[in-house]
Amino acid sequence: MARVSNREGVEEKGLRSVRSLDVYLPKRGLPEGAICKGCGIVYHNKRWQVETLPGESNCEVLCPACQRIEDHNPGGVVTLSGPYLASHRDEILNTIKQQEAKSRGKNPIGRIMEIKEEGGQITVTTTEDKLAQKLGREVYKSQKGELHYQWSHDQRMVRVEWMR
């Protein structure tokens, strides 16, 4: 019998893979060809995809990204700050938007939920933790500065802070 440790380090017996604890992922698979009524992506081969499938779907659901957006529950928060930010704002925002578009081609449920500017700082909320990490890493690679990650207790959300 296989023994697998999940993200929390709890050992589970008899499982082939680690069980996802993400409440936005369905416990059982969705019907093939299900369409998100929020954004129009398609559930095909057990994945959300941008491609359109021939024929009509008789199942409309909300994808995990649209559910998170509706619930105002981000998977990641990226905070950009520092005096350097004001003079390079447009360039940094362009990098963020390009990275989201590039990432969305591979994973359509990884999206920017909101970009908010307040008090000389920019806050970007994302539907997935991995996208938030990627955005922070790309800003750091292109602009240098300091980059910090902080995960929530249950590892379901990440806060990324970049400053320069």
Shape type: elongated
Uncertain runs with pLDDT below 50, 5 residues or more?
A: 1-13, 15-19
- Number of discrete helical segments: 4
| SS class | alpha+beta
Rounded to the nearest angstrom, the distance between the terminal CA atoms is: 51 Å
The total beta strand count reads: 11
Q: Strand order, biggest sheet?
A: 8-9-7-11-10
- State Rg: 18 Å
What pattern of helices and strands is seen along the backbone? EEEEEEHEHHEEHEE
Let me know the average pLDDT. 84
State the assembly state of the protein chains.
single chain
Largest sheet: 5 strands, mixed
Helical amount among residues, as a percent range?
Answer: 25-40%
Which strand-content bin applies to the residues? 25-35%
Primary descriptors:
164 residues, alpha+beta, five-stranded mixed sheet, single chain, four-stranded mixed sheet
Please provide a written account of the structure.
The chain is of the alpha+beta class and 164 residues long. 28% of the residues lie in helices and 29% in strands. It has four helices and eleven strands. The protein has helices at residues 64-71, 83-87, 89-106, 129-143; strands at residues 3-5, 11-13, 34-36, 42-44, 47-49, 60-61, 76-81, 112-118, 121-126, 146-151, 158-163. It starts with a strand and ends with a strand.
